[in-house]
Structure formats: C-alpha cells, structure tokens
Amino acid sequence: MVLPLVCVLVFPVAIVFIIRGFYLITFVNGNEPKNIKYIKQAKILIVLGSGGHTTEILRIVQRLNHEKYSPRIYIKAKTDVISSNKVKEIEKSHKNYKIIEISRSREVGQSYLTSVLTTIWTILQSFPIVWREKPDLLLCNGPGTCIPLCLVTFFFKAIFILNTKIVFVESFCRVKSFSLTGKILYYLANHIIVQWPNLNGSTYPRSILVK
Ligand SMILES: *[C@@H]1O[C@H](CO)[C@@H](O)[C@H](O)[C@H]1NC(C)=O
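Above are the sequence and the 2-acetamido-2-deoxy-beta-D-glucopyranose SMILES. Below is the predicted complex in structure-token form.
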C-alpha cells in the first residue's frame, strides 16, 4: 500500500525535478531574463553567513529600497549571536522584517562526515521555511546555511512551486577564485555577482562584475 503510493507521488516529482532542474541550470540561470515581470514588492529572503559575510550582505541590503524589497526575512544560524544585533541596527526604523533561526550546516572545524549529517538536517529545516515564506528573491553570499536554503529553493522552482530569483554575491575577499559555496551556487543561482575582475564574465560567463 505504502510503496505504490510513494512511487505514484515521488516518481513523477523526481522526473520533473531532474528535467526542469537541468533546463534551469543550462538555459535559464546565468542568462538575462527573457520576459521580465515587474512586481510592486518583492519578498526577500536574506541568508546571513555570520561574521564578515553578514556585514557584507547587510551593506547591500541597506542600499535596497525598503518599500520595494519588503518584507525582508533574515535567516541566521542559531549559534550566530552577533548577526541579529547587526540586523536590528540597520532595521531600527522599520517594522517590515523578521529574523528566522536555523541550525548551521557546518560549524568551523567540524569533521567532514558529521558535516554531511548536519547539512542534511539544515536542508530538512529549510523546507518549511521556504515553503512558508515563498520569497520572490533569495539573496545570499555564503557560506553556512546558504547552500541548503538555495538547494531547497531550487527544488521548489524546478517542480513549478516557486518562481524565486536566487542571487549569490561572491565575497569581497574572493579576489582570484570562487569559494566552494560560489562554485556550487554558480549553477543554482540566477545571477552571480562578483566584485573582482579576475572572476569576470569572459572566464566565468555567468558572473556579473559589480565594483
Ligand atoms: C578575466 O579573468 C581572467 C582569469 O582570472 C584574467 O586573466 C583576465 O585578465 C580577466 N579579464 C579582465 C578584463 O579583467
């Protein structure tokens, strides 16, 4: 009874995911969007990578139009105590934001094997968050919880549930090469923003150089 049910449900979803996922990675991501649909407001999910990554991404968020990019949902790791203060500081005159906590997929110095398990756990936690929030835009600059959230968002996109734009900003400290997160999200994100000319569009066709 259970097995046929699983097959009936999971099998078509898996097929759609594989085919459309391939289509998105090959033909959609990294390209200029064809038919741009303008929306009044974009709900934006901002993944705080903690430390310097949080500072960098908040510097970008600060420059966004607060009425258009609203509401703003910040995701931070449970063990990251500093990021929420930084958010509260830049949001002090606004109400249209909230902070959600998630467990970190990999702590600094954690072993490779247990990282796999904690990453799976973070992916499972990301499902209800992305499902509930249904963001129009996912903004991240890695590392930590960024990949699980992007994976889950990409999954929902591939099976036609969401139409979220994923934007990855490579950290200012990556001068010559992409970070591991960058290498993975290079394919999953709609747009890759880089800040140094060596990661330019002629070598990495999907990247957009912003100085
Ligand atoms: C693009 O990147 C390559 C390799 O990193 C580098 O050799 C080249 O000079 C860069 N081009 C520009 C225009 O910056």
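The pocket of 2-acetamido-2-deoxy-beta-D-glucopyranose is lined by residues 197-198, 200, 202-203 (CB under 6 Å).
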